[in-house]
Amino acid sequence: MGLSEALTVVERARALDRPAAAARTAVQRVLRNQAVKDALHGVWLGHPLHPSLAQFTLGSLVSASLLDAVGGRQRESSTLIAAGLATTVPTVAAGWADYADSHEEQQRVGIVHAALNTTAVACYSAALVTRTRGGTGRTASLTGGVLAGLGAYLGGHLSFRRGLGPNQAESVPHTASEEWQPLGPLADIPDGEPVARDAAGTAVLVVRRGEHVDVWSDRCPHLSAPLHEGELDCTTGAITCPWHGSAFRVDDGSVLHGPATAPMPGFDSRVVDGVLQARVRTFPGVPAG
User: Across the chain, how many H-helices and E-strands are there?
Assistant: First the structure.
């Protein structure tokens, strides 16, 4: 059985649902502060924080294993291990924050990913402890490198195969029509209530507030939830994703709260003879001149 087939087995393993759910619940109980959650998701960064931190943590630890594998000096290897372990806590925290707002299949892979990484960190910690007692710690370091590599493979699978992290609405500005498309009579658009319309095959979110109309992609950038099913707060001008609670400003599409980190792709709108029309903005968030 190859790695791809093994991952399919993991994704379908309902036996993992109980520990995955328990982990999700525990994370949600701990991460109650919205500002902390947004920071860990990477809202301030404009893309997920976890992969950026993981690059440093994994790079430091695996580099240490490579030095130990080729007979490098223990001092340099230990320095790299210490650097990797020092960033483990924020890396893990960001990863768990993303995990708590993911689908079941993603969580099944995620719980195995976390188990491998936890064991790898234990191995690297053991290597440092062994060295303080006069040992080489080489076996523990090499074992940690193998486990960290497998964990990284699962992390890549979660991101690039299962889509946890990437902007799910990235394709909208490139596939939606740049020509004006009718969305129906303006009189049929309810005031203060998000509705879905079709713009030449692209699902769009329409929000009317009096005579002002905003049109955005109906696809949440986080995991593609239908945003028109979310809750619109007319006081703050924000719409909240019905699946994982991402919040966006309906006046400019920007992210108010994660787990989403990318803004909603926008559409220009106009009314011609009482009919609402829209066309995609090729540069999301920037109205056409």
Answer: 9, 10
What is the rounded CA–CA span in Å between residue 196 and residue 155? Answer: 34
By CB atoms closer than 10 A (0-12, 13-18, 19+), residue 165 is buried
Q: What is the pLDDT of residues 26-72, one digit of tens each?
A: 999 999 999 999 999 999 999 999 999 999 999 999 999 999 999 99
Q: Is 126 in the same domain as 218? A: no
pLDDT (0 to 100) of residue 287? 55
The Cα–Cα gap between 223 and 258 comes to 12
Peptide bond into 48 cis (omega under 30): no
Tokens representing residue 71 in the block: 């007979």
> Which residues span the domain enclosing 154?
3-160
Last residue of a domain, one of 160, 188, 210: 160
Do the beta carbons of residue 77 and residue 64 sit within 8 Å? yes
